[in-house]
Amino acid sequence: MTATASALLSLALAGAGPVVELPGGWRHPVASELEDPLRDDSPSRYTQATADFNGDGIDDTALLLKSRTRSAEALWVRLSDGADGIRWLKPMEIDWEGPDAGVAMAIEVQAPGVIAYGCFDGIEDCDFGPVEERPKLKLSEPSLLYFRPGSAASLYFWSHSRQRFLRVWLSD
User: What pTM does this model have?
Assistant: First the structure.
């Protein structure tokens, strides 16, 4: 990603309103951290996804951000609380134990619908057999596909009863 593309991504996040302030200690990835050619078919290089994840009628924005102080990356969601305003949630953080690397994970919006999954996060016995035999989720709002290009994939969806994102694994 060129410096110009990175600047345009930052402007796109700002939209027509004020610049979006990121969570403290976190920054947007730089071009050298997003060089994987598998990212080429996404304008945001799979680092931004916008949809109404919690069904309140207001778009939310998910971002993959890098730590300013550690070799870490995290999935952050700028979630609208309707009349209560906006809050940042961090459903996932990866702390790499070596030298700082590029961004490993990717995100994109998954449309509402029926999703076959292997297991919920934290369950050891996952069923990644034929899709038609897997358990299914029926989601009425968009969700967030979280994946490593060419590798494992999971899905974060908003749970109205728990008021937080839950994760299911789609592949291992």
Answer: 0.85
